[in-house]
Each structure stands twice: as structure tokens, then as C-alpha cells.
Amino acid sequence: MTILTLAAVVALGSFCAGLLGALTGLGGGIVVVPLLTVLLHVDLRYAIGASLVSVIATSSGAAAAYVREGYSNIRVGIFLEVATTVGALVGATIAGVIPTSALGILFGIMLLYSAYRMFRSNDDHPPSTAPDPLATRLRLNSSYPTSAGMQPYAVEGVLPGFGLMFVAGIVSALLGIGSGVVKVLAMDRTMKLPFKVSTTTSNFMIGVTAAASAGVYLHRGYIEPVVALPVMIGVLTGALVGARLLTTASVRWLRILFTVVVVVLAVEMLYKGASGAL
Amino acid sequence: MSERQPGHTNSPPRLSDHALEQVIGRLLQIGVLTSALVVVVGGIALLIRHGGVAADFRSFRSEPSELSTLGGIVRGAYRLDSHAIVQFGLVLLIATPIMRVALTLVAFWWQRDRLYVGITAFVLALLVYGLFWGRA
């Protein structure tokens, strides 16, 4: 395969990943690594480097639109970034010594969990009114726009949320994904932030977390321009088109399609990881 | 409209936070667009010059220092080496969220929010360390 063919195939696959990622709200990063390793036999380290780059691109691109709506909580974001950034640097440090088979299995589990979360209904709980004293001291409580005007909310479970974010940082670096599902879990379920605030703040944080480990991986030689180039451009254009289509396309069958893709890739990653073929 | 007030009274001034978010959003957009432009220009040159070369990324060979250190990438891009130009665009992309954190630091400084100046400075230091030295 020549560089030109590889770039074309990778760009096409990444476009589909970005498109489906934007339409389902799951982000394209999660399928880029299995796509590159399982289908195109690219080394896991190059795949992780390229995927992180695409995660930064989509997160920053989408954040530009999100921040204007006033949902994201900058203080919550920057405070939790302490945990995700430290986690990402720890993850990048241990990535070299963790066997790729273990990474494959971890990846398979993350894929299955993401597929499961996609179908759990996002029943929005009423905003919390009982703040964690630590949240008050850190001035994390804020308000967000609703149809009924600005709605104040309190932040709970600061330390457990912080701990989960540390895990999210490690997972992000090890697998080259945004680990948005873990971030949303920490903010929505543990810290009781409104769902919309959780997702936009999570998106806001994903780019910073990915930048921390991408810097380390750049120095380690994981970022190969020929692989990262089509991944970045493909995912980014896919995400842009997806955001446009979001209002018109039928999201339901797309979710089913994406879930099938994710589950197939999960099984493949688990199999390859367990059989040491990765 | 709800009259409920959660137990907090010291919420930050809303207006300046909102203005900050506008600036941050614009910065992220400019960062992504600039890096995408550099990557596309370098990528076209790369595919024209090296498109016919056999691609093999099945096994990992660490990138040479011209493509894995900031100095090497900048020198290569200056020589108009197409691989280095793409890599330079990718570095700009990695730097975009880092710039965002730096801008947040400035904003907290303006608001005289010492606690968050400290928290943001810590995050920024880690990110700068990762990008410039990166031997985690």
C-alpha cells in the first residue's frame, strides 16, 4: 500500500468516525484507534498518537460553539483539569510499560461501556441544592441558562469526582481517546451537575487532557504525520458535517448503526488483546 | 422562574465570565483553523512528493528527532520539508488548548481570583512541561 492509498483509506474511515461521533454525541476518537489497528494494521502507538490529535481538533472545534451558549462551568473545568492533566501525564508515563494486550482489553471494555451509555436515557435530575462544603469554598456552584431563565445549581461530591477525573486522564492517555464518557459520569452522576453543563464542560476539558499526553507522545515519536494527517482532517470534516446534519438526520437508526460498529470493534479489540495479536 | 438559591453567595461576576467565554471560543476556532490550514498545505505537498512511496506502519519505529522535537520540527518546516510542515500544524493544534488555559489564567488574574490563578498556573505548568520537555 502506498502512502497515498493509506491516507485516502484512513481519511475516509476517519470521516465516517467523525460523522457518527458527532451525530451520536460519543465523539469520533473512540473508533479511530480500533479502525487503524484492527482494520489497517497500524501499530497501536501511531494509532494512539493520531487519535489524540483528532480528539483535540474536535474538542476545540466544538468548544468554540458550546462556550458561547454559556453552559460550561469554567471553574469546575479548570479545577478538574488538575486531576485529568496529572492523570494524563501518569498514563503517558506508564503507557510504555503496559503490554499492548492489556491495552487492547481495556479498550474493548471502554468501547462496550460507551455503547451501553449511549442507550441509557439521560434523565436530567433537578439541579442540586446541597453543595459540598468544598465546592462552596472553591466557588464551583454556578447557574446555567434554561427555558425559565438562569437556574442556579450546587456541586456535590467534589473529591470522588476529582478521583474519577484522575482515572479519566489515565484512560485518555493510555488509549488515545477523549474519555468523555468517564468525564460525564463524574460530573453528571457524582458531582450532580446538570447534564448539559456536564457534557459541555467535559468537551471543554477533553482537549486539555489530550494535549497533556499528546505533548509527551510527540517527544516519544508516537505522532507520525502520514497517519495523523488523514485522521485529523477526516475526523474534523466528519464532525463538522455531522453537526450540520444533526438537525435533519434521524439519529435513532444512526445510534443503532454506531452501536453495532462499536460492539464489533470492542469484540475485535478484546479478541486481539486476549490472543496477543495487537 | 425558580426562587431557590443553593447555599452559595459568592458566585463569580457573571458578565466577565461570559465575555471570557466568548474570547476563548474565538481563540479555539482560530487555533483549529490555522493548524488545519498548515496541516492541509503540508499534507498536499507530502502526498505530491511522497505519495507513491510504500507505507508501512505495522511496526513502531520512533519518529526521528526532526519530527519529534520542537526545534527539529521548526527547522524542518523552515526548510519546507513536507513531513515537518504537517508536524508543525499538529504542534499548533496541541498548543491550542494550552493557549486556552493560558488565557483563562490571564482572565482569573484580571478578576484578582488568587485561588484560581494558582490552580490554572499549575495546570498550565504541567501542559507546558509535557509539550516542551515531554519526558514524563
Structural write-up:
The complex is a heterodimer of chains A (278) and B (136). Chain A is mostly helical. Chain A has one domain. Helices cover 74% and strands 4% of the residues of chain A. Chain A has helices spanning 3-24, 29-39, 44-69, 74-95, 100-119, 133-137, 158-175, 180-190, 195-219, 225-245, 251-274, and strands at residues 142-146, 149-153. Chain A has a two-stranded antiparallel ribbon. In chain A, a hairpin with a 2-residue loop joins β1 (142-146) and β2 (149-153). The longest helix of chain A has 26 residues, at 44-69. The model of chain A has no long low-confidence stretch (mean pLDDT 88). Chain B has 136 residues and is mainly α. Chain B has one domain (25-51, 64-132). In chain B, 72% of the residues lie in helices and 0% in strands. Chain B is built from five helices and no strands. Chain B has helices spanning 14-50, 65-68, 70-78, 82-110, 114-132. In chain B, α4 runs antiparallel to α5 (114-132). Chain B is elongated, with a radius of gyration of 21 Å. Chain B starts with 13 loop residues before the first helix and ends with a helix.
Architecture blueprint of SSEs:
The complex is a heterodimer of chains A (278) and B (136).
Chain A: H1 3-24, H2 29-39, H3 44-69, H4 74-95, H5 100-119, H6 133-137, E1 142-146, E2 149-153, H7 158-175, H8 180-190, H9 195-219, H10 225-245, H11 251-274
Antiparallel strand pairs in A: 1-2
Chain B: H1 14-50, H2 65-68, H3 70-78, H4 82-110, H5 114-132
Helix pairs in contact in B: 1-4, 3-4, 4-5
Q: What are the defining features of this structure?
A:
heterodimer, A: mainly alpha, 11 helices, B: 136 residues, mainly alpha
Task: Produce a short descriptive summary.
The complex is a heterodimer of chains A (278) and B (136). Helices cover 74% and strands 4% of the residues of chain A.
